[in-house]
Model the fold of this input.
Amino acid sequence: PDKPSIAVLPFQNMSGDPEQEYFADGMVEDIITALSRNKGLFVIARNSSFAYKGKSPDIRQVGRELGVRYVLEGSVRKAGNRIRITGQLIEAASGAHLWADRFEGDLEDIFTLQDQFTSRVMGGIAPSLDSAEMERVKRKTTNLRAYDCYFRSLAALYRFSRETNEEALAYAHQAVLLDPDFALGHMVIANVLVQRWSFGWIVDRAAEVQEAERAIRRALDLDRRDGQVLAICGQASIIILRHLEEGAGLLDEAVAVDPSSAAAWTFHANAEIVRNEPGKAIADLERVLRLSPLAPGKWYALTLMARAHNMSGRHEEALPYAAAALRLRPNFPHALIERVVANALADRLDASREALAIFRKTQPDARISTYAPIHLPPAGILKYQAALRLAGLSE
Done:
């Protein structure tokens, strides 16, 4: 298939307990169902992958026989009232391990345990698959198809610079030129523009608003059942179009369609902050950090966590989240702002001024009078303006 393809093999029952066989098989079925919700994946049906049950096949052979790029395998082991589940994602052609995780829990509520592991698998392998696809297209020298342009766009997007943002937009345009009905191509245009607006790299505000709206409408018209499409379009609706209620509604749909998507829950948390519900945002973000602790966008979740704590008046608690976000993405202006605000409102004025000096290098035109970001509710804007005034930002 043109898009990334995966088979989930039956998990091995290492317990010697036949009852665990049903548990292991049910968990694999749940994982297959969850993966099938991702419209960007081709997932081998259960009947085909379960042909390997009770065998120890060579992964390269599985890849050839089923025609897939990736294979997920795992095992279940019971010891007393505890159970240990392991899973690993393998690139079929090379045999390279892309992701692995282990999960342990009590057998008292075996179905809850099954759901928890399924969510953890989904949160872990989604970014691993994206990274693997980006590496794969880097090695290609043939003409690129629309899907290859999509992943090249993502690869450029994740390098987080003004120049690579331009490159990402060019690849996204090429993707939809090759296939005008490619929902993910239109979605990635919106995603590139969200990054541009978040980092302050806007080139032509009015033109970018129009382009974002076209991309959002087209992506939603083509596939409104894809959680990823709903999540990106919801975030773009809030950040660029300033359509809070529409964007929040799309994000409600996104987490309902794909409850294992760390990105969807992250953007949902942003909507909760804009709605002036920082407590709900913190709950969303705690879920994100459990679902996908190594996701490429973790720095944004940490920034939002700092913002939610600042909005809640817990400025000392906001500081470590802002610091963690800046370790991962030092040039992100919104994480710098959270550090400025947290220090100013925690009576750490010297530290606040130092943070402001770094922020002004990234945003030299920033002024209190023009600081009215869409990602804050009206009360939050006044609070942040007061903090920035304390830190010494010009009026």
